Amino acid sequence: xxQTVTGPTDIAGSLRRIRADFPILSQKVHGKDLxxxxxxxxxxxxxxxxxxxADTMRTQYANIHRGLYxxxxxxxxxxxAVRDQVAAFLGAGAREEIIFTRNSTEAINLVAHSFGSLLKxxxxxxxxxxxxxxxxxxxxxxxxxxxxxxxVTPITDDGALDMDALxxxxxxxxxxxxxxxxxxxxxxxxxxxxxxxxxxxAAGAKVLFDGSQLAVHRRVDVRALDADFYVVTGxxxxxxxxIGVLWARREILDAMPPFLGGGDxxxxxxxxxxxxxxxxxxxxxxxPAIIETIGLGAALAYIESIGFDAIGAHExxxxxxxxxxxxxxxxxxVIGTAPDRGGVISFTMDDVHPHDIATLLDRNGIAVRAGHHxxxxxxxxxxxxxxxxxSFGIYTTPEEIDFLAATLEQIxxxxx
Amino acid sequence: MAQDDLYRTVVLERARTPxxxxxxxxxxxxxxxxxPLCGDRVKLQASVDAQGRIAxxxxxxxxxxxxxxxxxxxxxxxxxQKPAHVSQLHAELVTTVETxxxxxxxxxxxxxxxxxxxxxxxxxxxxxxxxxxxxxNDDKDR
Lengths: 416, 142
Description:
Chain B: One of its GO terms (biological process) is iron-sulfur cluster assembly. Chain B: InterPro entries: NIF_FeS_clus_asmbl_NifU_N (IPR002871). By secondary structure, chain A is α/β, with parallel strands linked by helices. Chain A has helices at residues 15-20, 47-59, 70-90, 104-114, 137-146, 163-170, 193-202, 214-217, 222-225, 250-255, 290-306, 308-327, 354-362, 376-382, 398-415, and strands at 28-29, 32-33, 35-36, 98-101, 124-128, 149-153, 175-181, 206-210, 229-233, 244-248, 266-269, 274-276, 332-335, 344-349, 366-367, 369-371, 387-391. In chain A, α7 links the parallel β7 and β8 (206-210). The chains are: A alpha/beta, B alpha+beta.
């Protein structure tokens, strides 16, 4: 990335250059320019990521951590360098606290299995009403395996976390872990992670944040948040699929048993018994996603080259613009109006079904998500079966949002 | 806006003002289908005559325009038919949405042919049919 776009400047001036980095944005869909408004599901990839992965396979690929030859050593260095990058990206205290997983879902499952195995019946895992299935189902499975209690903290009608209810839910002192999203994939709500962590710790609980959405839009500092666990996924961070990250405090990771067994995670193995490698390798069994990890490194470098000041300013302006433009569409209702929110906007439009909206937008080149967004309990809470959702990335332009609003108005005319 | 031949007048009309919606008095068959991916749901009620023909069928559909129109057109089309013919229609519709080519005689059901270019929506049109086939098969198992 050209260094001239670095710094806390408005991203808008650099938008043309940023868009040029994403080859897919020049594709046509049904003969129309692609308007990609589904970055919250998975973001598009810049050529820097594509090239880093392809170059690795072209020039130096080999398995890591075991080869005694040049290619393996170079690839090991490249892979482990990404661990340093991620540690810096998340503000981690040590590189050993970075565990590579397949995605956020696997990171949460790792915690549910491994940390979860240390919990006793009667202890409580506390989630919120606006969790993605990834931060709900693993805890239900843990509950069914071990007899821990699963407790759900409600949200307010505007889609914010009900902090008073959280306090009440923590008050019996039985909560061992609070597992809550840092930014809702449906409502765009950004939760007050530091306040949640303080409340959890005061009640003697550990706290896990699902940062899958937030880490794309704002700087994460796990130590400033006073988190105990934090999970992110690479494919929403403009990186490849198949690579995610679990960060946790070193002392917690040391106390946790391994998740998966196999190569790379051991210290010694005999038929009688095995001993475990130290962290992070204790939690990274088998050949990891080497190429994807290197791709994630390129993605983080790309994000850092733009900077979160510029990304944040761009997104704030886009979200304000979108809420205004969509608010002018007849019959359109934005779902989720929490005061602190990011560029993920769910909506309904009269009784036009979100699937019909999505298909007709697609015919105009506009990609949005429609459905329950892997958050069925939240849909019930909101009293809807599905919503349409537009979400923004660093390449999204105000003109694309205007086109979305105009097309929605036309679609409504089609049905109503 | 790009017009879409999938959302033709018959689809929009049947979704907006269905002719076969609601409960059926004297129904002796009940079926239901739902799509966990989107929350759409179709409830079916039918009565079958002494010859095994579907005498009447009604649907209660909570879903998109494609699903609702499909349920209504299905109800119209299968009325008076025996299960074997329903299975044949179902098979023809599957081929139609997969290939985009409707066999002769498919009538109004051929409006769903453009679904072959919207593969993620095929299940919307097929949900009422799956519920119907399941309901008729349950009947056989009795």
